[in-house]
Amino acid sequence: MNLFWWVILPYIALAVFIVGHVWRWRYDQFGWTTRSTQLQERKLLKWGGPLFHYGTFAAIGGHVIGVLIPERWTAAIGIPETVYRWFSASAGTLAAVLVIGGVLILATRRLFVPRVRATTSTVDYAALILLLVVIITGVVPTIFVNLFGHGYDYRASVAPWFRGLFSLHPSTAAISAAPVIYQVHATAAWLIWALWPFSRLVHAWSAPLWYLWRPYVVYRSRVTTRPAEPGTSGRRWRRIGVPY
Amino acid sequence: MRVKAQVAMVMNLDKCIGCHTCSVTCKQVWTNRPGTEYVYFNNVETKPGVGYPKRYEDQDQWHGGWALDSKGRLKPRAGGRLKKLATLFWNPDLPAIDDYGAPWTYDYQTLTDAPAGKQNPSAHSISALTGKDMTPGWGANWEDDLAGAPERAADDPNFAGLEEQVRLTYEQAFMFYLPRICEHCLNPSCVASCPSGAMYKRDEDGIVLVDQDRCRGWRMCVSGCPYKKVYFNHRTGKAEKCTLCFPRIEAGQPTICSETCVGRLRYLGLMLYDADKVLGAAATADEKDLYGAQLEVFLDPEDPEVRAEAAASGIPAEWIDAARRSPVYALAARHRVALPLHPEYRTLPMVWYIPPLSPVADVAAERDTGLFGAIEALRIPIGYLANLFTAGDPEPVRRALHRLAAIRTHMRSVQLDEDAVSDDDLEDLYRLLAIAKYSDRYVVPPAHAEEAGTLMAQHEQLFCAQPGGPDDNFPQPASGPVRDDDGRLHLDLSPAVPAPRDPQPTDDPARRDA
After folding, report:
1. Predicted-complex ipTM score
2. A53–B456 C-beta distance less than 8 A
3. Nearest by Cα to B124 from B137, B133, B112, B115
4. Of the partner residues B203, B213, B468, the one whose CB lies closest to the CB of residue A220
5. Please, which residues bridge with residue B178 across strands?
6. What class does CATH assign to A2-213?
């Protein structure tokens, strides 16, 4: 069982993540969008959208520091575990408050505002549920274990296993000894990676940073290209009456 | 000088009867799909009125178009690039769907399914967004023919600075129709606002389009356009806009709104312009000078030097010839009876309007003051027209109206008085405005036949050029600039940094063979 949860599932998720993105990018440029619902509802989104996204950026930054950077590196530059924990707990709690506030507003909006709910697909619900699981199981230990509790050094168990996956030496012992809440967090996260290419989450890879360096007005001229065979050019407009 | 050609339009407001045929045919052709129920690429507004979406003309509220910063530099009014990225997750300037009018349909099934009874069954309204019952409360056409004007028309932003609100009393009310499509601006702020670079202006004919494959739904174009003529498809999550019916234009046909215009008030033709002058004109300090500055950007196709430069820029010979016959150039630049819509947005719009004169004849007869004297006493206040067309400067409007009045006086004298002197200019205008033959109204040169393969590709893919590298059967032009692999030409309009010159399709044997 350990092998499945901590080795096979992550690798399947990663494989689906990569292959899925290649497929989606080639087949479905037309469906690659944020699918924003600001047009339908703007009052709740005003708070939910920025809170969630900026909070998520902070949380991603925290994961890079906490999971990708080994404990011995921070120790080597003279940061003891207590200091790290203090930083991780306080900054993590700030990010946690932003993310959980944002996601609760967004989930409320999606479930209870009829105009928004009408745009929600099955994949959206799946992504939303997984996100809620990941966020709650991430926020609870950050606040109640690391900030107010006795603390848990996930950098000694979860992080080495995660890095081990990428160096092809995953250590199941470390993660299987971790508290259940970290295990649920990690598993739900893998499921999100697997779902990612098939959901609207793909818009994250289109973050338009290039805009900062682009001239304002874009001109484009025709190029000679072979007309695509009918039906081979990816997803297109649907006929009237066919749901998207 | 960097000569480019653009397909542009003029609408003669004197002739618009507000029948909405243009809106209907446009809707049938382009937005008769789920997600675009509320979208009218072409809509006809009754003026005065708040418009579609509500009060779109008030840029203090919506922050569309461009503004000059404290140093006189041109900047999107909603803020620069960093501000745009920072507000990606919630765009403060995006209209809500209720500002356009939440879309609805009717429960027609009830009409046939209802059991027999004393009363006739009625089809109640159903929201196109949720499928649930709703009571419509606003729509693109809610204020048609001044409906509700006593309550709402005073909110028309074009009344700013006028004392004309008093004219909304019933006895003095005025109205005219304003059909609107995308302006296909020379300095499009929607294109500038698009973080993905999915929006572009076509190099060949100036049509502004959204690449449906590259749009990521950041919706900055919707708020960036001061005319609010880019729309968000709420089903596909992508922006859509008026395409100037490019498949028809490429085939040398007028747009569907023009083709079906009952009043025959639309004109389509080419404008040659100098791309090097665009940004300078848009950054003109005084808003009232923007109209004149845009006229300076246009190039006179009768000027042999312009024609030589146009040919050198790769504009085909028959396009240059069409530019000489362009009714748009004649009405906007030569005779100056057509004026731009809201030049103060600094986008250099390319759909121009001949201001309405119609009620003048009655006024003149009533007061016996002659046509020219009556212009000041028009029911449609000149100040209102000036706020619409010339950033508040009444002079160009007055001149255009005088010109229109002069045609009537002149033609009356020519037809009644055998000794009348002929006036080529006025008779040319008479031919364009009053006779208005199909072939004079629409001078649209077809795209070149050697590009037919490309055109098919564009049609198959709707709004987008497919990324494609060199191909054995469809060789890339051997000479020419280095572009990125999907033909994108990042033309920096600032003259200091000249963009690569376009390949010359007519001179390139590889292209002809393709």
Report:
1. 0.90
2. no
3. B133
4. B203
5. B45
6. mainly alpha
